[in-house]
Design a protein that fits this description.
Layout lengths: L6 H14 L8 H12 L12 E6 L2 E6 L2 E2 L9 E2 L2 H12 L11 H11 L6 H10 L14 H22 L3 E2 L8 E2 L1 H12 L3 H14 L2 H8 L5 H8 L1 H10 L5 H24 L14
Antiparallel strand pairs: 1-2, 2-3, 2-4, 5-6
């Protein structure tokens, strides 16, 4: 069965095909190509089958109701979250859907599913070590020496984050200009381990998703600590790409789509971590529906 192709999608694909020939210098376009292919070859669209999403409480957890039916995870378990603000945000995601349920863009729902079902069956310790392991490939810890303009740009924008981490947490990290990984002391890893283990299980899933999205543990720590905002974190993570586009030009819509998609995913992860780390509730008058 072939996927339904709308005129808007046809224009998107046409523009995409034209940009492929002009974007050989930008390896990041590959994931956009893969996403388009998955979209086109997925014959199943989940059409909106409910009128309103509301929340309810059960055994100290918050559940999502689609009309009178409980929302369930991909494995068939009842969908439930530990905080009311998170439940309201997930319900808002479902209420914002129109004709078709756009699941790939429902980042909070996806994060909750991962935290509930833990598909890789990772323990807290394993999840923490995986996050720390990102330091070996942290974007801002790898520097280029050529061209000189880019080297200066990296020092100007990335060094302040390294300095902040040293002052805020006492981390000792030496960036690298070669294929060798950055130098991270064992004491620094121990500090990071204690810091991450202070988060809840759910927040750790959000942290892992965020670091994998941003390709930088340092930038994510600065974002969670509100030292930088989402836009700044994304701009710093894409510093080299931005330098390239200034030299060679942007690839029509591709770079903007990537940037705004990254902002959306990172914003969702930051909110997810925040709402899973604090105990809070919303007054009844602020709810989207009675509990």
């Amino acid at each position: 069965m072939a996927a339904s192709i709308t005129p808007k999608l046809c224009r998107l694909i046409s523009g995409y095909n034209q940009t492929l020939c002009r974007a050989s210098y930008c390896g990041r376009l590959r994931h956009i190509e893969d996403s388009c292919k998955r979209w086109l070859h997925n014959p199943r669209e989940l059409k909106k089958f409910y009128k309103q999403a509301t929340i309810s409480t059960a055994d100290g957890w918050y559940e999502i109701n689609l009309d009178k039916k409980k929302l369930r995870t991909p494995h068939g378990n009842v969908f439930k979250v530990p905080s009311e603000p998170l439940a309201l945000a997930v319900a808002t995601e479902w209420n914002s859907q129109e004709i078709v349920v756009n699941r790939p863009n429902m980042h909070l729902t996806a994060l909750c599913n991962s935290a509930m079902e833990n598909p890789l069956q990772k323990t807290r310790s394993q999840l923490t070590e995986t996050i720390i392991h990102f330091l070996e490939t942290d974007t801002i810890c790898y520097r280029l020496t050529e061209p000189p303009e880019l080297e200066q740009l990296e020092r100007k924008n990335w060094d302040p984050i390294i300095d902040w981490a040293a002052q805020r947490y006492g981390l000792e990290i030496t960036p690298t200009c070669s294929m060798s990984p950055p130098i991270v002391s064992e004491e620094s890893k121990a500090i990071l381990r204690r810091h991450l283990m202070s988060y809840s299980d759910w927040a750790l899933f959000g942290y892992h998703y965020a670091v994998d999205t941003l390709k930088s543990l340092m930038l994510m720590m600065a974002l969670v600590d509100k030292h930088i905002d989402v836009e700044t974190a994304v701009d710093l993570a894409r510093l080299e790409l931005s330098f390239q586009t200034e030299q060679w030009g942007t690839v029509e819509w591709a770079h903007d789509i990537e940037k705004y998609d990254l902002r959306c995913r990172l914003s969702a992860a930051a909110l997810f971590i925040h709402w899973c780390s604090e105990s809070s509730s919303i007054k009844q008058k602020a709810s989207i529906a009675p509990i």
